[in-house]
Design goal:
2 domains, binds carboxymethyl coenzyme *A, Cytochrome p450-Terp, domain 2, three-stranded antiparallel sheet, 385 residues
């Protein structure tokens, strides 16, 4: 047996520096470029936080207006992207649709750009690409939900800012301020989280000097999994199964006996609670009141208190955001694409950071297959399994 110390899942491995965000599990805090995320979520529009992640500082009024103007320029769903989305089977997962759409946008944008040697682009090009993806993703996500409901896409409204327009393009009606605010908070809270699986995927791809779009497509694939972004969707499946706060205890007995993972709980880094949860829970509370759904609040609290009491494992951001998106009217399948629309800002900030001081990411492995052997002993018609 080898004495190599394998860090399964890279747990506890510090892979590089980053100035984008700081996760501190000891103090239960998350800082974006130095600012506590809960302060950003309750005071800043998502556009300003995107600017902060990309540029390192919050925007001036003029810079925010410039970013908002660019965002409006690119928020229309291009006809070819709509056509590509329409090729994706209606019963495919919407994450496959989003991944396909981003892949086409990348192919179109980079067409004629020459050899792979130029793929990684310069900082200005990559910032422009990041802004375009950030601006167009709401149209992609909104159209995905509408087409599954048999509805036509809705044109963006230039009198509305990012979050209000996102809701408008999804539902075709203006949302109340309390809903826009809760949605904006969720986007800010989901925007960035250091070297999580999808961001690390994006950095691995960027480190080969591939292009930003390829890195984002890979990150979307990583985010789809239920151990990562797919958990917000999975939380709603659990809520649908339990249905009523009174069923929590027997449901939990059975789920734990079957050794099921309870989605929306636990975190690789936070072991004493996810710093983003209180802010999103406060937003969920405002929605519960707005939509008069105390049943959601009781199911939420009952499952949380029972599970924490039994296992000492705390909720993560997906736990309050799943029911919040449900109350806003999003289909359960749309939840993880919403996470993409938010996290694209963090991914692209990390891709640019990776390229600014790049080293190819290429770890080692410890071989544990058969000892060296030779073709001489190989008999092709013998059964091997
Ligand atoms: N339900 C039941 N048991 C759990 C859970 C859970 N949600 N989370 C951890 N555990 C148990 C796990 O079974 C293990 O027990 P034992 O030591 O007896 O085998 C122990 O706690 C350690 O768990 P782990 O899976 O080894 O810990 P990890 O750091 O690898 O996992 C995690 C972190 C997020 C993958 C895990 O907590 C999990 O699967 N949670 C459910 C999925 C989820 O909510 N994911 C969203 C994560 S946060 C948002 C994001 O990053 O996208």
């Amino acid at each position: 047996m080898s004495m190599t110390d394998i860090k399964k899942g890279l747990a506890g491995v510090v892979a590089d520096y980053t100035a984008v965000s700081k996760v501190n599990p000891e103090t239960n805090s998350l800082l974006y470029r130095g600012y506590p995320v809960q302060e950003l979520a309750s005071t800043q529009p998502f556009e300003a936080v995107a600017f902060l992640l990309w540029n390192g500082e919050l925007p001036t009024d003029v810079e925010l207006a410039q970013l908002r103007a660019l965002e409006r320029d690119y928020r229309v769903l291009p006809a070819d992207v709509r056509a590509a989305i329409d090729l994706v089977p209606l019963d495919a997962h919407p994450m496959d649709e989003v991944r396909t759409a981003v892949s086409l946008i990348g192919a179109r944008d980079l067409a004629g750009s020459g050899s792979v040697l130029d793929a990684s682009g310069n900082p200005a090009e990559n910032l422009a690409r990041s802004i375009r993806l950030f601006a167009v993703l709401p149209a992609i996500v909104a159209y995905g939900q509408r087409r599954r409901r048999g509805e036509q896409p809705i044109e963006p409204r230039n009198d509305l800012d990012y979050s209000a327009n996102f809701l408008w393009m999804t539902f075709g009606e203006e949302s109340d301020d309390v809903v826009v605010d809760a949605f904006n908070r969720s986007m800010v809270l989901y925007a960035e989280h250091s070297f999580n699986a999808s961001t690390f995927t994006a950095r691995v791809i960027a480190s080969t000097l591939s292009d930003l779009y390829s890195a984002v497509v890979g990150a979307i694939g990583a985010l789809k999994g239920p151990l990562h972004g797919g958990a917000n969707e999975a939380v709603l499946h659990i809520f649908d199964e339990i249905r009523d706060a009174r069923n929590v205890s027997p449901w939990l007995d059975k789920a734990l006996a079957e050794k099921r993972k309870i989605m929306g709980f636990g975190h690789r880094v936070y072991k004493r609670g996810d710093s983003r949860v209180p802010t999103m829970k406060a937003a969920l509370d405002t929605l519960v009141e707005h939509y008069d759904r105390p049943d959601v609040a009781s199911l939420y609290s009952e499952l949380e208190s029972e599970f924490v009491a039994r296992k000492g494992i705390y909720p993560n951001l997906d736990y309050p955001s799943g029911p919040a998106y449900n109350l806003m009217g999003f289909d359960t399948l749309t939840f993880t694409p919403l996470f993409v629309a938010a996290r694209v800002t963090g991914w692209t900030a990390h891709i640019m950071e990776q390229l600014a001081s790049n080293a190819l990411i290429r770890p080692l492995s410890e071989y544990n297959g058969p000892d060296e052997r030779h073709i001489e002993g190989y008999v092709p018609d013998a059964e091997t399994l």
